[in-house]
Structures are given as structure tokens and as C-alpha cells.
Amino acid sequence: MYNLAKERDSSRLVNYVSNSLHWDSADERDLPSDAAADFDMMMFNEYFSTWYGKSLDVVSGELDRIHREYPHKPLTISEWGICEPVHKGGDSRRAKEMVQQLSIYGSKEYIAGAIYFCLNDYRTHVGEDSTYSYPQRVHGVCDIHLNTKPSYDTLKKISSPILVKNVTRTNQNIVITLFGNTGIPSYTVHGYTIEAGDAKITIDELKPGEEKVFSIKSSSHSFSILRPTGYEVARIKFE
């Protein structure tokens, strides 16, 4: 399958998502290495505090152990999140733990990225919530009808490549200090905009670890940062 995919389009990464990288190492049980190691990028579903029956306290050390066993390739967290009602704590736990987990991932140089699971609750015959006529898996930052939960705003905030370090007002100008995120996500942004009321300015470029100050003339008490596509990365309110 790997070879066939490469024949069709050699420019694309071909990966295998693993639920078993956290098991005992191959050397300990005389087993072959995990299949994830045979592909272009290693991918791992990180559920230590839920499905794997441990806690957030072990995440950092367990990821380091995996990296020691497979040091030759970067690791992408292909899933992380909380499924209700199997795992208790509700959406408040979902929001709290996603912040902690992303901070851990971003501190590891060998972790290339993290894909949150998932956008919305969904119907499935293996759903854990059978209080509905059709069982659901309650795993999303939106409900089954795409109504957002509080965790949606949390995920939106921590998924921004731009951090707002400071906001002040000078006469009719809003002075904004921005910082390029060095955790996850981290990449150079081009053509993002800051909008406050009817005023709009462009962030030509902001690199990870770079700090820039922007001034926008507006009497508004809020501003938004938008991608070139129009998606709102962040909305900041201030006095």
C-alpha cells in the first residue's frame, strides 16, 4: 500500500496511525517494531489520561520513551481528546486538559504537530452515549448539530500561531504587541490582518519567536486577527 501510494503521488507523506506505540518496547518482548516506524512520519493517538488508563502526569515521560525507542523520525499526535460519558469531567475537563496536553507537545522538539479529535460529536453504532435513539460518541468541541461548546473557544485560542502579548490604548490608537508562537502551532504567517471597527491593517510577516508592535486607529474596545482566508484566529476584548 505504501509503494502504491508513492507511485500515485510521490510528493505526499504516507503514514500509519498507531494505537500501540505506548506498549512495551520491541526489545523488551522480542517483538518487531511498531508499524508506524516504517512510514514517512510516525503518528500516535495519545490517550494516556483516558483510554490508556493513566493520567496527564505520565504524558511527557511516555512521549520521551517513545522517542528514545524510535529516534529517527518525528512524531505527530494524530488524536488527543476526551470521550464522554466513558471518561468523566465533561467539557470543562476537555478544555482544561487540551491546554495542558498541547503545552507538553509544544515543548518536545521531536513532535511535529497535533491534530485534535474531534470537531463534533457524531452518531455511531459503537457510541457510548445511548441516551439518544441513535447512540453518539461525545468527543467533540461541537455537539452533533455543530453548536459550539466552551471547549471550542479554548481550542481556537490555543491553535493560533500568533500570541497577543500586550494591548494598550494611546489616544485613538490601539497598540498591540504580537509574538510568533514557538510551541504548537508554529510557522511564519503572511498576510494576516488586524481589524478593529472599520479599521484594518496587515501583518505582512511574523516569524516564530519574533515580536512586533502594531498600531491601529480605532475607538473600538475589541479587535480580531484574521487569516488571509477570512477565518478569525483570535478576538480580543479590552477596556
CATH architecture tag of the largest domain: Alpha-Beta Barrel
Topology order in helix (H) and strand (E) letters? HEHEHEHEEEHEEEEEEE
Largest sheet report: 4 strands, parallel
Give the amount of beta strand, in percent.
25-35%
Count of helical stretches: 5
Number of E-type strands = 13
CATH class of the largest domain: Alpha Beta
Helix content estimate: 10-25%
Structural class: alpha/beta
- With strands numbered from the N-terminus, the spatial order across the biggest sheet is 1-2-3-4
Q: Give the overall pLDDT as a whole number.
A: 92
Query: What is the CATH T-level topology of the largest domain?
Result: TIM Barrel
Shape: globular
Summarize the structure.
By secondary structure, the chain is α/β, with parallel strands linked by helices.
